[in-house]
Amino acid sequence: xxxxxxxxxxxxxxxxxxxxxxxxxxxxxxxxxxxxxxxxxxxxxxxxxxxxxxxxxxxxxxxxxxxxxxxxxxxxxxxxxxxxxxxxxxxxxxxxxxxxxxxxxxxxxxxxxxxxxxxxxxxxxxxxxxxxxxxxxxxxxxxxxxxxxxxxxxxxxxxxxxxxxx
Length: 166
Fold this sequence. Notes:
By secondary structure, this protein is mainly α. It has helices spanning 2-10, 16-31, 38-49, 53-60, 69-84, 92-99, 106-165.
């Protein structure tokens, strides 16, 4: 699935700089702590700035619920915990709440909201930091890949034209 998305990304006819920018914004969205809003954010930005939808969605879907969601969430929390000086392990009460969920009781939800700051603040800070770092890394890498692909395509077209003109 990811390989097919990369092939589609390489086949886009937009300028490489614009495609790389759209992809890196998608990566920014993928690592953002706004779970459940990623596709909406990508769609709004794609239409507002006329970004190529394939490029921005490919970047956004780096955060895939089946493969990368849990590692990204854990990395976001870990980075945020390091930055805020909190321990890497979840606080005991928060861990117990997650380990033994009682979704149908008001008491469980009350405790969850009371302790959520201990988890959500590091997660949000780490998510924003990873969003910035990963998107800044994604732009030049994607741009290099797209420019290389463009040069190869131009070379093949030149060779094809020279063979047909003989």
